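Box 4.2: Ligand-aware structure prediction
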Amino acid sequence: MWNILKFKPVKRTGFWTIVQGCLFAIAALISVMTIMTTRSNLANRMMLTDTSHDPGPAEATCVFDSLETARTRPLLRAVVAYFSVSQTAVYFDQLKWCMRSLLEIATTEPALWRTDLIIYIENVTIPDLLDLGCSTTPRQNASEPFKCLLVEYERVQDRVLSANATEYERNLHEQMKEYPFIDSIYALVEHASTYSNYDYVVRSDLDVFFPPAFSHWIPPNCAFVTGNGAYSDPYNMEKLAMVANYSGIHFNTTIWNIGSTWIGSPHLIAKVAARTVHWMIHLSKNEFAPKQRTSAWWSMALLWPEWHYGVVLLYGGHLAVNEVLQSGKQHPFLKLDLDHPTTSTANCTLNGPIHLHTYQNHDYFSKYVFSSRLYNETYSLPSVLNSTRCCDYAGYMAADSLNMTCAELKTRLRTAKLS
Ligand SMILES: *[C@@H]1O[C@H](CO)[C@@H](O)[C@H](O)[C@H]1NC(C)=O
Ligand SMILES: *[C@@H]1O[C@H](CO)[C@@H](O)[C@H](O)[C@H]1NC(C)=O
Ligand SMILES: *[C@@H]1O[C@H](CO)[C@@H](O)[C@H](O)[C@H]1NC(C)=O
Ligand SMILES: *[C@@H]1O[C@H](CO)[C@@H](O)[C@H](O)[C@H]1NC(C)=O
Ligand SMILES: *[C@@H]1O[C@H](CO)[C@@H](O)[C@H](O)[C@H]1NC(C)=O
Ligand SMILES: *[C@@H]1O[C@H](CO)[C@@H](O)[C@H](O)[C@H]1NC(C)=O
Ligand SMILES: *[C@@H]1O[C@H](CO)[C@@H](O)[C@H](O)[C@H]1NC(C)=O
Ligand SMILES: *[C@@H]1O[C@H](CO)[C@@H](O)[C@H](O)[C@H]1NC(C)=O
Ligand SMILES: *[C@@H]1O[C@H](CO)[C@@H](O)[C@H](O)[C@H]1NC(C)=O
């Protein structure tokens, strides 16, 4: 049954400490690394010492093991993502097109399904987001229409340690203060209860589109599903295997490049997220030199693709997935075509990819060309969706999201299930 979601009050924000231009470059780099796919094949011991935060969702049995049954029942999916207030203009564009694609999902998914958006953000009173209908009021029951939930989250770099801070909090702050991507994962650890009442959770960025196939998709066999990253080279794999070995956790040397987009049950998402943060702190502290942890050093990516601090989030996730899922022995694990590029001419039909992600380039559909508003009379975006190509799906959704006012998008999302 659906229970009222609980919230933990959160503290205030501070100020922006890292040079922003540099950060954009880093963000671009990490995304390329995350998304670009090379080779890939298919695919609890040390507990967190920290007990102060969210206990997270309880383990659930695999209820929706068959799509046929699931289609006739209420089913709740949540897309969870971090919104960077310091880059509001860019993130707002992406949020709007992502929501526009979720409108498409709302109108085509089974009548009793709901797919919500949960956003972790430093400031929950930004007018543009409120205009889109986003609020801090969680879903009350399974029949309410689409929800965009804002959850107040304080960036790790802004936190001020109190005298009684736990060792975990000190380590987190000390190790991750120059690694802004920590927020995209730590928010899921700290606020796991915000998604605990959903059946499936999609951990994603906002510069993504949900294509038609997502409208009737659930993880096969309740598996934990990831896309591909591109961080695994032989040296890194040996290094990660060594860490796994001296830490006494399972490690499968044949599973490479576990991406940063994950789909799974709330319990597993919370658990893998918590262990990812654990391993990130461990690697940062023990396997990187202090100089390597400074953003000034790692943003140069001198070692890439070998042992690059910029992707410590992915290294942490790699160890966490090995540890928690044990190559599918502990829990079903699948690598699928998530983060499918928005430049793709593949068919985004009901059998197509279930998740599209923008790359760091200027090819159609490009988030850079779009955010510079350089799709114009000469290089225009589709004004009707008369093609099945993924690039056109993304292009149309983005164009239509610009065309729509916030109020219109909000209303259409609220009423999508009524018509
Ligand atoms: C490693 O993963 C592969 C592919 O998922 C699987 O076939 C194999 O049994 C796993 N090996 C171990 C030792 O877990
Ligand atoms: C949050 O955003 C609102 C609207 O832009 C602004 O008035 C307010 O000062 C911000 N709050 C904080 C804590 O930054
Ligand atoms: C679900 O919650 C909404 C908002 O509180 C309420 O208006 C509606 O009546 C509820 N529906 C059911 C079936 O409980
Ligand atoms: C830590 O100290 C602060 C005051 O400095 C207090 O408000 C807080 O409750 C303390 N936390 C714990 C876990 O003891
Ligand atoms: C670590 O490596 C040693 C030596 O190869 C091996 O005996 C041991 O089983 C390994 N431990 C784990 C957890 O894989
Ligand atoms: C897309 O689907 C059409 C019609 O089924 C087919 O002819 C075409 O080859 C497909 N395109 C790709 C890139 O798979
Ligand atoms: C249209 O966009 C292209 C690049 O996408 C740019 O070169 C051109 O100047 C733009 N034209 C106008 C009229 O803005
Ligand atoms: C699709 O619509 C575009 C206008 O955006 C038009 O130029 C094109 O001819 C149409 N294609 C088909 C197959 O109808
Ligand atoms: C945007 O709105 C204009 C004017 O209403 C319309 O001509 C155009 O087709 C719309 N484009 C999209 C992508 O909806």
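In the box above, the bound molecule is 2-acetamido-2-deoxy-beta-D-glucopyranose. Residues 266-287 form the longest helix (22 residues).
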